[in-house]
Amino acid sequence: MTKTYQLFIDGKWLNSKSAETFYRINPANPKEILGKFQQGTKDDIDKAVDAAEDAFGKWSSIPPPKRGEILFKIVELLRVNKERLARLMTKEMGKILLETRGDVQEAIDTFEYFAGEGRRLFGHTTTSELRDKFAMTIRRPVGVFGIITPWNFPIAIPAWKLAPALICGNTVVWKPSSDTPLCAIELMKILTKAGISDGVVNLVTGPGNTAGMHLVKHKKVRGISFTGNRDTGKQIVKEAGIKKVGLELGSKNAMIIMDDANLKLALDGVIWGAFGTTGQRCTATSRVIIHETIRKRFEKTLVERVKKLRLGSGLNPRTDVGPLVNKAAREKSARYTKIGMEEGGKLICGGKIPKLNGFFFQPTVFTDVAIDMKIAKEEIFGPVVSLIPVKNLNEAIKAANSVEYGLSSSIYTNDIRTAFEAIEKIEAGITYVNAPTIGAEVHLPFGGVKSSGQTREAGWAGVEEFSEEKTVYIDYSNKLQRAQIDTK
Asked: How far apart, in whole angstroms, are the C-alpha atoms of residue 226 and residue 323?
């Protein structure tokens, strides 16, 4: 019998007022039903927001180090449950166990980092232009935060948002992706077991266009943090009103390989960057901009490696590449492969739906790709990579910057001058040197430029994202002093 899961509002597991549910299946085995989940409604969001608002006063008044103690308990529970959560994640969204274990580890590291921030939450002190006057800033919570998370990192990305939101004293209504509701529920159970008070974190599963957008518009919600599709991000900006909004959106990440690069290292980087998580990362390497003098040699070795990649269930330790998250994602990769061929790209590997049970697509490589082709400009979010030949570094940087996105980038070179010129001129929030476009660390800011969003998460930027900076002046002169007037 299929298990039915519930919403979590004000410390209680509840059915949605809609009385409607949806199914989630295993993308590697679509006949396996993982559970039935609540179709959350606007009414459910209203109830969750009210609970978060009621809980805010008490939670925000707890000293940050004490809030940090609860986050440390979350860390320990995640460690104990790491393997169980990793296996559940592989069944729910498809990526291989090596990666799902890394997903949970990222959440562990994130909660641990922000637990420590409970003893920091630094402001600034500075001088005043007037005598006998003190000036400083302090960190204050925003209020009720709406958090909307994607399916591709269903434990790690919620941790990126929940950990800083909680340590800063905010309360939360969390709307996870409908592709990974079970991971969200299991993480919610860990939060409650660690001692998160009733109403501090509320979980509502359901459609983004109704429940999610109502959360965005809600007048009692003071902040929104969203990771997902660029077009949804645009809609959020239109609908959110005057509130704090953080957006981490899509990308079309480029790896530059210069003629002096370590080609074996670069090859390893392409395999991991392009086909890790089946290409379903916002930081995935989807464009390889390669010096024309080494292109043919690199293509040959790349195709040899790609053809050896083994597709299958992520629970099988021999599997290199798991399924795409759903049928629509597989169809999108197939559609862009067809577009690439019609545009004149040369398909040198993959490009087909294999005869496997599940939403699989062959790892796919195009070459002779021009920067104005759709496969070089538009986010595919699948195991499809394009090779773009260039003559020099200037051409390479121009190609890297030719898209509307700017999240992650990388360059392979042994010339330090080349590396620093790329760091300076590539339009991206992240640049790696001699590493692929994936692999961010939790204690450094993460985010992009241009259409990839305007937020920074993780590290010290996470505290800034989920708090307000308040300026404080203390005048102990015992007389009226006027800034910009009494300055002599």
From this structure: 25
Is 248 annotated as catalytic? yes
| Upper half-sphere CA count for residue 54 (Cβ side, 13 Å) | 13
Nearest CA to 463 out of 227, 57, 122 is that of 122
In a domain, 168, yes or no: yes
Q: How far apart are CA 217 and CA 211, in angstroms?
A: 10
Q: What's the token pair of residue 77?
A: 């529970």
Grouping H, G, I as helix, E, B as strand and the rest as coil, residue 36 is: strand
Query: Do 410 and 360 form a contact (C-beta atoms < 8 A)?
Result: no
Q: What is the DSSP letter of 4?
A: B
Chain segment 74-130, per-residue pLDDT in tens: 999 999 999 999 999 999 999 999 999 999 999 999 999 999 999 999 999 999 999
Q: Which DSSP symbol is given to 424?
A: H
**Type of residue found at 352:** K
Instruction: Judge if 263 and 240 occupy the same domain.
Output: no
Q: Rounded distance, CA 28 to CA 93, Å?
A: 9
Pick the catalytic residue: 282, 349, 379, 457? 282
Residue 487 has pLDDT above 80, yes or no: no
The contacts of residue 172 (CB under 8 Å, 6+ apart) are: 52, 144, 145, 146, 147, 162, 165, 166, 200, 201, 202
- Cα 449 to chain centroid distance, Å, stands at 14
Q: What is the CATH number of the domain that holds 283?
A: 3.40.309.10
Domain with 460, as residue range(s), is: 7-249+453-472
Give the CATH number for residue 173. 3.40.605.10
Out of 112, 248, 379, 465, pick the active-site residue. 248
Q: Tell me which residue has tokens 């690199």.
A: 298
What pLDDT was estimated at residue 454? Answer: 84
Instruction: Establish whether 99 is a catalytic residue.
Output: no
96 and 243 inside one domain: yes
Residue that is written with structure tokens 């429940």 in the block: 211
Same domain, 457 and 379: no
d(CA 411, CA 488): 54
